[in-house]
TrEMBL record:
<keyword id="KW-1133">Transmembrane helix</keyword>
<keyword id="KW-0067">ATP-binding</keyword>
<dbReference type="Pfam" id="PF13614">
    <property type="entry name" value="AAA_31"/>
</dbReference>
<dbReference type="InterPro" id="IPR025669">
    <property type="entry name" value="AAA_dom"/>
</dbReference>
<keyword id="KW-0808">Transferase</keyword>
<dbReference type="InterPro" id="IPR005702">
    <property type="entry name" value="Wzc-like_C"/>
</dbReference>
<dbReference type="GO" id="GO:0004715">
    <property type="term" value="F:non-membrane spanning protein tyrosine kinase activity"/>
</dbReference>
<dbReference type="GO" id="GO:0005524">
    <property type="term" value="F:ATP binding"/>
</dbReference>
<comment type="similarity">
    <text>Belongs to the CpsD/CapB family.</text>
</comment>
<keyword id="KW-0829">Tyrosine-protein kinase</keyword>
<keyword id="KW-0997">Cell inner membrane</keyword>
<dbReference type="InterPro" id="IPR003856">
    <property type="entry name" value="LPS_length_determ_N"/>
</dbReference>
<protein>
    <recommendedName>
        <fullName>non-specific protein-tyrosine kinase</fullName>
        <ecNumber>2.7.10.2</ecNumber>
    </recommendedName>
</protein>
<dbReference type="InterPro" id="IPR050445">
    <property type="entry name" value="Bact_polysacc_biosynth/exp"/>
</dbReference>
<feature type="domain" description="AAA">
    <location>
        <begin position="263"/>
        <end position="392"/>
    </location>
</feature>
<feature type="domain" description="Polysaccharide chain length determinant N-terminal">
    <location>
        <begin position="1"/>
        <end position="89"/>
    </location>
</feature>
<dbReference type="InterPro" id="IPR027417">
    <property type="entry name" value="P-loop_NTPase"/>
</dbReference>
Length: 471
């Protein structure tokens, strides 16, 4: 994936990223609200040597103090100082717990020590800091007094006593919310990229081409109204979905152009990819283009064409195969000139046996001789073998791939099922792709852009023409 692909992923998964950001901000707000406020009080101590009589001794004493300051910072946070403070103030708190509240630091190349005590109570924080500083001054004097001497060589002096803090140092809601938002956005972006990496569903035409080895003949945009009006014959002439099928009709003409009469099986990897509505609408588009078309309901297990076309389903393909009715009598005319439909007929107990029979081969040959194009709606390839058996008797299969549902593995296995019986995919129909916005021509692989005439302009032109005729 290059940078452009990552940008596309982030744009496509923006909702996931936003949700992660909101969740982490909410967690940060909850933690900030529920956390106990902590107050910090600090005191500063100056470490110096005593008894320096000249500049050389003063310089040596200063270096000695610098070395001692680093050790004193560790002593301040130790158990001994905390124990003495607990004893001095008669606290119920353990020395270990108090030691965790104490911190000490020193600036580089200085003899200034800063001791800080944090506590939920600001007054108590000040009291503890004063006590720690006082105990530490006495402790240094004790440590640095040589045996037999009355005066320490180094002393610590409180130069800035502790003060009562006015505001807590934690929690910091602004900082927590900002960090939560940044962390959430980063987690969301990572989750989006991971999900995209693990997602094997087909989302672009670039994913299809190497899997199938056949051209993409058309891309049908998702239409929420397709459930109520599945057929393009019920749509406006310039509806995007109708335009997409006309583009598919045009591209289909370039498949085996030297063959005058063609037979294609329309199938998919799994149910629910829109193969039946694609077959019906393609047949309607071909008939509207002047072709003589036969649409065969070859899905004997779940026949739907008769329902969409409102035709009789009692007689049809199975009736003709078993010889109970001639083909000419089983084929039904439709409201669209040039389109005839052979419905499934009665559902047999052995669909695969019927579809691979010699009678089925003879029926396909008879339809080929009578029609310009024969389209056979076949069952999906992965659940059953019917689709592959039909494709082996046709000129090839048109594979319907549903955007965002069909996976690359499913397409690969579907192609293998076709090749196993000597059939081949001759084209792909990318179905239910996200609708494009904006106007434009229905070009390329069949993006369903609308390009209807401007009704206001047409009305104005008509009124202008009427006025000229009247004059």
């Amino acid at each position: 994936m290059d940078l452009r692909d990552y940008v596309k992923v982030l744009r496509a998964r923006w909702m996931l990223i936003a949700v992660c950001g909101l969740v982490t901000v909410a967690l940060a707000a909850l933690l900030s609200w529920s956390a106990t406020p902590q107050y910090a009080s600090s005191a500063r101590l100056f470490v110096s040597t005593q008894g320096s009589t000249d500049d050389a001794q003063a310089n040596q004493g200063g270096q000695f103090s610098l070395q001692r300051v680093k050790s004193y910072a560790d002593l301040l946070t130790g158990q001994e100082i905390a124990r003495q403070v607990v004893d001095d103030l008669e606290l119920e708190e353990s020395p270990g717990a108090l030691a965790e509240q104490i911190s000490a630091s020193s600036k580089l190349d200085t003899v200034i020590l800063t001791v800080t005590v944090t506590d939920p109570d600001p007054e108590r924080a000040k009291m503890l800091t004063d006590a720690v500083a006082r105990v530490f001054v006495a402790y240094v004097a004790e440590l640095e007094t040589p045996p037999g001497k009355d005066e320490a060589t180094i002393k610590a002096t409180v130069v800035d006593p502790a003060s009562t803090p006015g505001s807590p140092i934690s929690p910091n809601p602004t900082r927590n919310l900002a960090l939560g938002l940044v962390l959430g956005l980063l987690l969301g972006a990572g989750a989006a990229v991971l999900r995209e990496t693990l997602d094997t569903t087909i989302r672009t035409t670039r994913q299809i081409e190497p899997l199938v080895g056949a051209p993409i003949l058309g891309t049908i945009s998702f239409d929420s109204d397709a459930v109520g009006t599945p057929l393009i014959s019920s749509l406006d002439t310039y509806a995007p979905r109708a335009e997409a099928f006309r583009v598919l009709r045009t591209n289909l003409q370039f498949i085996d152009p030297d063959v005058e009469r063609k037979v294609f099986v329309i199938t998919s990897s799994l149910p629910g990819e829109g193969k039946t509505t694609t077959a019906v609408n393609l047949a309607l588009a071909l008939a509207e283009g002047g072709e003589k078309v036969a649409l065969v309901e070859g899905d004997l297990r779940r026949p739907k064409i008769s329902e969409y076309m409102r035709l009789e389903s009692a007689v049809g393909l199975t009736t003709t195969i078993i010889g109970r009715l001639p083909l000419e009598e089983a084929v039904q005319a439709t409201a669209t000139d040039g389109l005839h439909v052979l419905t499934s007929g009665a559902t047999p107990p052995n669909p695969a046996e019927l579809l691979k029979s010699e009678a089925m081969g003879s029926l396909i040959a008879s339809l080929r001789s009578q029609y310009d194009i024969v389209l056979i709606d076949a069952p999906p390839l992965l659940p059953v073998t019917d689709g592959a058996l039909l494709a082996a008797q046709a000129d090839g299969a048109l594979l319907v791939v549903r955007h965002g549902k069909t996976t690359s593995d499913q397409v690969t296995v579907a192609v293998e099922r076709l090749e196993a019986v000597g059939a081949r995919p001759v084209g792909v129909i990318f179905n239910m792709t996200p609708a494009k916005t904006g106007g434009g021509y229905g070009y390329g692989y069949g993006y369903g852009y609308g390009y209807a005439p401007d009704k206001d302009a047409a009305r104005s032109a008509a009124q202008s023409a009427d006025s000229k005729v009247g004059a």
